[in-house]
Amino acid sequence: MTLSLASAARLLDQHGLLREIIQNDRWSLDPQDFTDIAFTAVTYDSRAVDATTLLFCKGRFKAEYLTAANEAGLACYVAETDFSERTDAVGLIVDDARKAMSLLSAEFYGRPQDSLTVVGITGTKGKTTTAYFTQAVLNAWSGGKAALFSSVDNCLDGKHYEESDLTTPESLDAFRMMRTAVDNGMRYLVMEVSSQAYKVHRVHGLTFDVGAFLNISPDHISPIEHPTFEDYFHCKRQIITNSRALVLGDGCAHADLIRQDAARAGIDVTETAPREQVMESHDLAIDGDFNYANAAAALAIAHVIGVPDGDPALHAMDTVRIAGRMEQFHDTHSDTVAIVDYAHNYASVNALLDFVDKRFGERHPHITLVTGSAGNKAYDRRDGIVNAAQSRIDQFVFTTEDSDTEPYLDICNQMQGYITDPNVASTIIVDRTEAVNWAVDRARERQDRLNVLLLIGKGDERWIKDHNRHVAYEGDDRLVARLFGTQE
Ligand SMILES: CC(=O)N[C@H]1[C@@H](OP(=O)(O)OP(=O)(O)OC[C@H]2O[C@@H](n3ccc(=O)[nH]c3=O)[C@H](O)[C@@H]2O)O[C@H](CO)[C@@H](O)[C@@H]1O[C@H](C)C(=O)N[C@@H](C)C(=O)N[C@H](CCC(=O)O)C(=O)O
Ligand SMILES: Nc1ncnc2c1ncn2[C@@H]1O[C@H](COP(=O)(O)OP(=O)(O)OP(=O)(O)O)[C@@H](O)[C@H]1O
Fold first, then answer.
1. Residue 355 sits in a domain of what CATH number?
2. Residues 386 and 302 in one domain
3. In the prediction, which pLDDT does 486 show?
4. Hey, which of 42, 44, 54, 168 would you mutate to test ligand 1's pocket, going by the most ligand atoms within 8 Å of its Cβ?
5. Domain total for the chain?
6. Which ligand is located closest to the Cα atom of residue 213?
7. Among residues 353, 330, 352, 360, which one has the least CA distance to residue 481?
8. What is the ipTM metric for this complex?
9. Are 56 and 149 in a shared domain?
10. What's the rounded mean pLDDT across residues 306-315?
11. Residue 36 pLDDT > 90
12. Whose CA is nearest to atom 17 of ligand 2?
């Protein structure tokens, strides 16, 4: 690990981020005016510092955190504010602490991205699935040397998967994990890139060898995410100029604007094949026609990376299943199929119902949608889910998803209020376990008909967020398998 106070200050200066260096009453632009420190660790948590740690003060960091850090011997911090009243440490005062954190973390971890072929995948829907497909192909192609950062799991050695917290990790965590991946012998990294990642500079300074832009539709609009669709789309578009080559999803909305971005930056665009073409040569284990669009993107990425057309490695994605995505369960007591899926906005609920229609439509099933929506963010999803489903299903059961401070019942009531179709029934059962139980019991009362239960928005998560803390939950998949007395 090679970062010192002097080299950090120089790097920040080169990137136009350094405002000045401050220690007590001494203010300077010259790092040589301060005792140099060779950093042995970097962190954004004031509770994890010692005399050779570089601390990044970002986001909702509070000045009082520095009191204990100072006692722990903190010697240097990066911040947008002068904290010399709270600490004797040297402050690298910058224009943007998150950009600084990304650049300095990459340097601290020895620029691991330079030893990897890095694939970045963005889009409103299909990021996780495409990332898993791509990793499977690159793993097969390279003999197990592809790492993955996804919203479900991270994988740093091509074979072990650990649950992740964010779609795109904080920059510092991302570069630390890239270092581990390189040390584990990985040659490829496939990562999901959320719009938030660009909004809060988690991938600042990172160039993707291949960037993929799958699709775009309204999502993530709220005060803590994006104020408008334009802002959401603008953030996602940053991947274009930060990639060496671009893969563009077939039928992507605003494709002309995306091509204009690429043309201005001189970046080659590879368009993905129509999903129907992929259906001719691949038989995916995971259900849903939309997954053939995700497969088309994975094939295009592999092509740009150099996997030859027709190579057997391309079929590695055929067997990929992703926990909590399009998982089917069949009841042993009635003609009922439950699908556990991660759909949670207009586009994905619509795609899910297209699948239900195609697979089960001929049997005119009774369709129940068990859904909630996230609290305190992505408000547009609430009417999006209702509008995508209301004329295509028989029954809504509104229940808990994840929340911060917003009461679950308020979210359920709001969603129920969006219903305009008089033919769809609805009920609110806030407790998610009870909601699924209720849906199963009602289905068993309809012995004369096929029932389709759609349990969406939680996938295989074993928790529900309440006040942003994880509260244990059995998981939609395990719950329904237990109630059905079987699992497939
Ligand atoms: C808006 C946003 O990006 N928030 C993220 C951000 O929060 P923040 O920087 O404000 O950090 P904070 O947790 O409020 O605390 C401020 C700082 O004080 C530090 N601290 C705190 C206490 C203390 O004693 N000492 C101390 O130093 C914390 O370590 C932190 O660095 O940094 C945190 C980790 O450092 C993230 O967990 C958090 O994500 C929140 C939880 C989140 O949910 N973000 C969502 C909106 C998100 O990013 N989603 C996208 C898209 C998902 C999708 O595509 O579906 C994603 O990429 O996941
Ligand atoms: N290409 C697609 N088009 C429309 N819907 C899709 C597509 N791919 C997946 N979906 C739906 O979206 C859900 C989430 O898929 P996935 O996790 O791959 O996307 P994501 O972009 O990572 O989503 P999120 O950002 O919400 O985590 C799936 O469970 C499915 O219902």
1. 3.90.190.20
2. no
3. 80
4. 44
5. 3
6. 2
7. 330
8. 0.95
9. no
10. 97
11. yes
12. 128
